[in-house]
Write a structure and sequence with these properties.
heterodimer, A: mainly alpha, 81% helix, 0% strand, B: 272 residues, alpha/beta, 3-stranded antiparallel beta sheet, 36% helix, globular
Chain lengths: 252, 272
């Protein structure tokens, strides 16, 4: 028991699984709609080729959108943070478009782009961009200006100031954005798959649900959760390893 | 001119340059107003090699701006600042008041102290590390080489900044209210240490402060500036000082000087 308490996260997962098993075994929930964990596992393994293909497709699309959205956010965010003139032009439209939920652009994207990969990638990029751009702008505003002056005093030109002061102080903000955007990318890709209705994990969930293949449906949902969890934790570890000096509280 | 009271011909042995400010003027454009705000108006001042000068004046009188102009961090609106000799270009070290923003939070104490050398392009790691180690010891930070700035107190962070500037081995040291943000006790300790360090350096040092006591205690020479636009109210040298801080602030010499500076600043406005 002591050993288990040392890893409260694992213990909590075990408790949830046990509750799930108990609820289905006792008939507290209808095991037709909520099958027990081992049934879900079996159903997932049974349809592994379809589930695997849907996962690879959705994750690839999401990854492309995630990268494009982040890249655009770095460029726009640095320009807005650095140049007041860009800020005055861009921040208004930025605030306006940010108010549009990423999932709301999917139907429009479908009309214009008419391709499930492009629609998914575009919607994910949209969602990731607006969250990341705020982080990047905040990052640029937090580049310590006195340190920039110190670098200039030691003889640095503007390029060297950016390289030695700007970029290093921005990197943790970049990683924060990447971490926060994991969940955005997953939400948006699943919804995009559902709306487009051709393929991918979102479509897999809809189809298995309407065909009463509930085991497969839960298998795909659990798979999404695992992917999100692993990605989030990897980025968290990277952040701790790479930027041990950084604390999220320095954002405020 | 009051500045002429100081004899500029006395030779002093130092590798530092003399600094001459001639007609230095600084104005800032004010939003929505036709007339610019004049911070510094035609200021003439000279500093001799190896001189430790404290510059005292009310907050916002432009004393920090003077240091930034000397270091080329802020452009002049008019006039000139020259070094003598003018070549090689003097190495200038700047100690900022705002220590928490002056250090790199992602660098350890050791790497922060090496920052000037890194910017300069000193490639040899061992050379940088040796210089850093020497000055980390001088400012009393041994044992904290691997700490990050946020783990240090304000006084310790300011020591890091001091070591960083010293490791750069400047010919001229500019210190902009370096202890202005520290609490009174730490400030006393730092004043004592900076005296010890600066005496061993023999460099031209300009030390800006709004604290009259600090300016009298630390300076071989003290320049008192008026509030906007900055002009020299008085400029005097003090003799060789051997007394301790306690003896000094109890002395008649200190009281006379203090009252003189205080009344000058008071008479000039309600700003001090």
């Amino acid at each position: 028991m002591r050993g288990a308490l040392r890893f409260p996260g694992f213990t909590a997962v075990a408790v949830i699984l046990a509750t799930w098993v108990a609820a289905t075994a006792t008939g507290f929930v209808n095991s037709e709609f909520i099958p027990p964990p081992h049934e879900v596992l079996r159903a997932g393994a049974e349809d592994w080729t379809n589930l695997g293909a849907a996962t690879v497709e959705s994750m690839w699309t999401a990854l492309v959108g995630y990268a494009v959205g982040f890249g655009a956010a770095v460029v726009v965010g640095m320009a807005v943070g650095r140049y007041a003139s860009v800020d005055s032009w861009v921040s208004g439209p930025l605030d306006f478009f940010r108010a549009i939920p990423a999932v709301a652009v999917v139907p429009m994207a479908l009309l214009v782009l008419a391709d499930s990969f492009l629609v998914g990638a575009f919607a994910v990029a949209w969602g990731c961009f607006f969250l990341a751009v705020i982080n990047v702008i905040a990052g640029v505003k937090h580049i310590p200006d006195t340190l920039q002056d110190a670098a200039r005093s030691f003889g640095a030109g503007e390029v060297k100031v950016l390289r030695k002061v700007g970029i290093p102080s921005l990197l943790p903000y970049f990683l924060s954005s990447l971490r926060q955007n994991v969940s955005v990318a997953l939400i948006v890709i699943v919804v995009a798959d559902m709306v487009v209705g051709l393929s991918g994990l979102g479509f897999y969930i809809l189809r298995t649900q309407s065909n009463a293949l509930f085991g497969r449906m839960y298998a795909s949902i659990v798979l999404i959760a695992i992917i999100g969890y692993v990605a989030f934790r990897l980025l968290e570890v990277a952040q701790r390893r790479l930027f041990p000096w950084w604390s999220e509280t320095s954002l405020t | 001119m009051v500045g002429d009271l100081v004899d500029m011909t006395t030779p002093k042995t130092s590798s530092s340059p003399a600094i001459h400010l001639k007609g230095v003027t600084k104005t800032y454009a004010r939003r929505g107003q036709d007339e610019d705000l004049k911070i510094i108006d035609s200021l003439d001042l000279s500093f001799r090699p190896g001189e430790l000068v404290t510059i005292v004046g009310p907050s916002g009188c432009g004393k920090s701006t003077i240091l930034k102009m000397i270091d080329g961090l802020t452009p002049l609106t008019g006039g000139s600042i020259t070094f003598e000799p003018s070549s090689p270009k003097p190495r200038i070290g700047f100690v900022f008041q705002d220590y928490s923003n002056a250090l790199a939070p992602w660098k350890t104490v050791q790497k922060n102290v090496e920052f000037g050398l890194e910017i300069e392009g000193v490639a040899s790691r061992t050379e940088r590390a040796e210089a850093a180690a020497r000055y980390i010891e001088m400012v009393g930070l041994e044992g904290f080489e691997k700490a990050y700035p946020r783990e240090l107190s304000g006084g310790m962070q300011q020591r890091v900044q001091l070591a960083r500037v010293l490791a750069f081995e400047p010919d001229v040291l500019l210190m902009d209210e370096p202890f202005g943000s520290l609490d009174a006790q730490i400030r006393r300790v730092m004043q004592e240490e900076i005296r010890r360090i600066l005496e061993s350096l023999d460099r031209t040092v300009l030390f800006v402060t709004h604290d009259i006591e600090e300016s009298l205690y630390l300076g071989d020479r003290t320049v008192v500036l008026d509030h906007r636009p900055a002009r020299v109210l008085t400029d005097f040298e003090q003799g060789e000082r051997t007394s301790s801080y306690e003896e000094f602030v109890a002395s008649n010499e200190f009281r006379t000087r203090y009252n003189q500076v205080w009344s000058l600043l008071q008479r000039r406005g309600d700003h001090a």
